[in-house]
Amino acid sequence: MVLSNSLFDSNVLGSSVASMIPENHKIRPLELTDYHKGYLECLSNLTVVGDVTEQMFGESFEEMQRTGCYFVVVVEDLALKKIVASGTLLVEQKILRGCGRVGHIEDIVVAKGQQGKRFGFTIVKQLQHIANATGCYKSILDCDAANASFYEKCGMENKGVQMAMYAPGTAPKKSSL
Fold first, then answer.
1. What Å distances lie between residue 42 and 56, 74, 98, 119, 129, CA to CA?
2. Are 102 and 60 in contact (CB under 8 A)?
3. Where are the alpha helices (DSSP H) in 48-177?
4. What's this model's pTM, rounded to 2 decimal places?
5. Tag placement on the chain: N or C end, fewer CB within 10 Å?
């Protein structure tokens, strides 16, 4: 059962980061009603979303809300009532480092036609703020080498190599570029 329309309590958001958003836009937690505000369309600028029904969206939202480990932040264009950017922080509880926490920043996306407004930068800064507020001793993310300089501008450091193993039949198609 969904506890509220918002994925998490907006009090965890950093107000100084939120003030970086242009007028007529708002940075906030993902809401259940964002299904109807183009959230999936925004995500499709990053990767394949698939055929996600409203029921599937609601069930995933409920599961993320129940665990309390997911912080999906969106930027809404208030005039258009459309989601134009998004990013996710997943907080992982560790045994290492005195049972510390690690923040995994994922799925940073800005909709086509919305780039250049610093939405991506602001989303990353907001997720870093949430990671600090929830007691994470570090935040990490994986990205393409072509995007590394962007994340360095956000204060991240290149610390290694990403490895992946996909379940049979789920590997992304190779780019023809």
1. 17, 10, 38, 13, 23
2. no
3. 54-67, 96-99, 119-133, 148-153
4. 0.90
5. C
